[in-house]
Write a structure and sequence with these properties.
Elements: E1 2-11, E2 14-24, E3 29-33, H1 40-47, E4 55-60, E5 63-64, E6 73-76, H2 88-97, H3 103-116, H4 132-144, E7 150-154, H5 162-177, E8 181-185, H6 189-195, E9 198-203, E10 206-212, H7 213-219, E11 224-230, H8 233-240, E12 244-253, E13 256-263, H9 269-276, E14 281-287, H10 292-303
Parallel strand pairs: 3-8, 3-9, 6-7, 7-8
Antiparallel strand pairs: 1-2, 1-4, 4-5, 9-10, 11-13, 11-14, 12-13
Helix pairs in contact: 2-3, 2-4
């Protein structure tokens, strides 16, 4: 769907992006992640045609990015901006109209989303009377009510409480199920774990990683396993012998324990089972893959000069 090919961006002597290349498949949720100042927002602005690359190009369905693509994109910027004196419904109609909808269709779409988010009673309120979270909802709606094929969301969860975070995440999942392509830029790695199919991590303007979330977790696993068992702790320690390191143990019932162990020499699930099963009553063995928070920290640390 989207091909970024060797894109660089210079600001005077500063290189904000350095030959970034990546592919974003249609109908997927792509996490664009990286530390502050890494170049994520620069890439997002290039995709939205707010700025042009200094080198390289972007293709949409094989066609060079051009002004005709604007209506196919929805964009929620990190720095929110609504006209404070406008009323909610009027503002949404305005946002839809600049994306190509006529007044009737814009009004219909705006009312649909206000009803869906159960905030229709606020339709005649001025923007400056809204809470921060409510204004965030209005801007989110404004980015998608023209039914774009590509939705770019820059920190869409900022300012929301846990209930509204889940509301937005559920809506993003629904958009994916409807065939939309979503670019999701965030520092919230828990949400990346929950909804992203793939991620691209940018650090110091360079693309450091680009892969499926599941693949990145597998690549950075630490050999940790969670084991739930019944038996004697001495028997457990003896069964581990020198092949594993005991990380933690907690008692969860009469003679029942849960431990986290880490392999010393790349032992597998079968090795854990073979070591423990003769001496203990096993209830669970589960390999512990790192979360995206741990993967993020490792990748950023390794790629920082």
């Amino acid at each position: 769907m989207i091909e970024v090919k060797g894109v660089s961006k210079f600001y005077s002597q500063k290189k904000a992006l350095d030959e970034v290349s990546l592919n974003i498949e249609a109908g997927r949720i792509f996490g664009l992640i990286g530390p502050n100042g890494a170049g994520k927002t620069t890439l997002i602005r290039i995709l939205n045609q707010i700025i042009e690359p200094s080198a390289g190009q972007v293709l949409i369905g094989g066609i060079p990015l051009n002004p005709l693509h604007v209506k196919a994109f929805g964009y929620l910027p990190e720095e929110r901006g609504l006209y404070r004196e406008m009323k909610v419904l009027d503002h949404l109609i305005f946002l839809a109209s600049i994306r190509g909808l006529n007044h009737q269709d814009a009004q219909k779409a705006a009312k649909h989303w206000l009803e869906k988010f159960e905030i229709m009673p606020w339709s005649k309120k001025r923007i400056d009377s809204l809470s921060k979270g409510m204004a965030q909802k209005i801007q989110f709606i404004g980015s998608i009510l023209h039914d774009p094929q590509v939705v770019i969301l820059d920190e869409p969860l900022s300012g929301f409480d846990p209930l509204n975070i889940q509301l937005i995440l559920n809506e993003i999942k629904a958009m994916k199920e409807g065939g939309k392509t979503i670019i999701f830029s965030t520092h919230n790695m828990n949400s990346v774990d929950e909804i992203c199919d793939e991620v691209g991590l940018i650090n110091h303007g360079k693309l450091v990683a680009h892969d499926k979330v599941s693949a990145l977790k597998t690549q950075h696993k630490t050999g940790a396993f969670k084991v739930r068992y019944k038996g004697n702790q001495i028997a457990f320690a003896n069964a581990l012998w020198t092949g594993f390191e005991l990380v933690s143990t907690e008692e969860i019932g009469d003679q029942w324990f849960q431990s986290v162990i880490r392999s010393r020499q790349g032992q597998t699930f079968n090795d854990v089972f073979s070591s423990l099963s003769p001496a203990l009553e096993l209830h669970l063995i589960e390999e512990q893959l790192p979360g995206m928070q741990d993967v993020f920290l490792k990748l950023v640390t390794d790629s920082t000069p």
